[in-house]
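testing teh design pipeline on a random one, pls ignore if ur not involved
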């Protein structure tokens, strides 16, 4: 009898494992459906369109989109008729026990000029990467700004021109933990993952940023010939 029970034990373990997988899958599917229903309801509430599918990041040459693997954009929101959007983004580095997944909320904002590749962010996000690559931080005439933010750009003149007195005042008053990456006619604003209802205010905050940048950039760095 004991031998018979012993022979059935592996089958029982297998059945329990299959049941656990099924329960986990059903729970994940139910959670996903709830998230989709919530996203659609919130989009309607705030006057946004929403794409609830999961897809690769847009084909733009931002450093963030070059990091890691398993890169996913999901729950992308935008106002009807506009190109600016906000979305969840995640990617994974390493593999197995050494893997780590990073989750962000990103706002993708159209610019009225064509920016050389430029990154602005608090100490520790862009700066550590730049230091490893031997990239020198760009400094402006505000010691407070230089202490709070790290800037690097393919075109130092562009960065210095963009960060005039008005722009510096805005960055300092915003006191934001966002990181900014500009390339061509797009700016990517990056924060750690936000709660779903927070993304709409974040979207509207981000699309207002170009208004705080110098108008002269449009003539110095015209967007003609650049594909958005």
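output:
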């Amino acid at each position: 009898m004991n031998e018979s029970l012993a022979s059935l034990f592996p089958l029982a373990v297998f059945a329990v494992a299959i049941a656990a997988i099924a329960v986990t899958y059903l729970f994940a599917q139910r959670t996903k459906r709830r998230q989709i229903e919530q996203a659609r309801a919130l989009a309607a509430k705030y006057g946004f369109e929403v794409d609830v599918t999961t897809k690769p990041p847009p084909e733009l040459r931002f450093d963030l989109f070059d990091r890691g693997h398993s890169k996913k954009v999901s729950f992308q929101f935008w106002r009807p008729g506009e190109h600016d959007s906000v979305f969840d983004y995640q990617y994974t580095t390493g593999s197995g026990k050494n893997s780590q997944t990073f989750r962000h909320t990103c706002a993708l904002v159209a610019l009225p000029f064509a920016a050389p590749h430029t990154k602005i962010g608090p100490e520790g996000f862009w700066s550590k990467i730049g230091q490893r690559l031997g990239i020198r931080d760009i400094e402006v005439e505000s010691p407070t700004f230089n202490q709070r933010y790290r800037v690097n750009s393919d075109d130092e003149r562009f960065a210095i021109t963009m960060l005039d007195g008005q722009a510096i005042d805005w960055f300092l008053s915003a006191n934001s933990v966002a990181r900014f990456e500009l390339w061509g006619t797009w700016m990517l604003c990056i924060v750690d993952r936000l709660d779903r209802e927070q993304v709409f205010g974040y979207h509207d905050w981000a699309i207002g940023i170009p208004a705080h940048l110098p108008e002269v950039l449009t003539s110095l760095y015209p967007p003609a010939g650049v594909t958005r």
